[in-house]
Amino acid sequence: MSTQQHLLDLFDRLDAADQAHLLAFAEFLAARTPARPAPVPVVRAIPDPEPIERPETESIMAGLKRLARTYPMLDKSEMLSATTDIVATHIMRGTDAAQVIDELEDIFAAHYRQLKSTSRG
Fold this sequence. Notes:
Layout: H1 3-13, H2 16-32, H3 60-70, H4 80-93, H5 97-118
């Protein structure tokens, strides 16, 4: 059990008056302790995509694998819902594979841009 969890468990066992006393004491201790410096945000360098030429004819699965190798820095689980929806629509409606791959490329590129913008702190 962590120290914080232990403190919370003890706090929960106290009646309202004792909780107020404990809180006042904690505030007193915090006031006499020098403030900790704010943590410095870690800025990760996001690598550029590794462009892999798209073959003239490509299956959707091959396209997904190519995009995963092109964007190794992306968390594919974050795109799972969107990519699954596109592939399911392709299977249900028989949309053109090239069109589906275009949409997948757009999703990967958008997630990459989002990652780049949020990594700047």
